[in-house]
Amino acid sequence: MGKSDNIVVIRDAQVVAAALREALAGASAETRAGLERAVVIAESTAEGTAGRLRGDWVRARLAEVGFSGDLTSAAAVKALRQAEPGLSLLAAVRLRDDAVDHPA
Length: 104
What we know:
Elements: H1 13-25, H2 29-46, H3 50-64, H4 74-83, H5 89-101
Helix pairs in contact: 1-2, 3-4, 3-5, 4-5
C-alpha cells in the first residue's frame, strides 16, 4: 500500500450528544444531573475543530509509540510515520503541525 496525503476526520460527537439529549428527555431525577453533564461534554466535543481533533490524534499516536520529545522536531514526524507507516512525509508534517498549533 502506498503513502497517503489524505487525512479524514470522522466526528460522531453530535450523534452521541443527540442520543444523550433523548435519554435526558425521559430521565429520572436521579440520573438527570449526570446526563445533563454528559450532554455538555458531548456538545463541547462536537464543537472541536478538525485541527484540534487531528492534533489530539497525533499526540495519542505518539504516546502509544513512547515519543515524549519536542513536537516541533523532525523526530516527532519520524515517530508519527513509524506509528502510522502509511503516512506520507507531507501528511505527517501537516498532522504534527496540527498538534503544535492545538496543544492539549
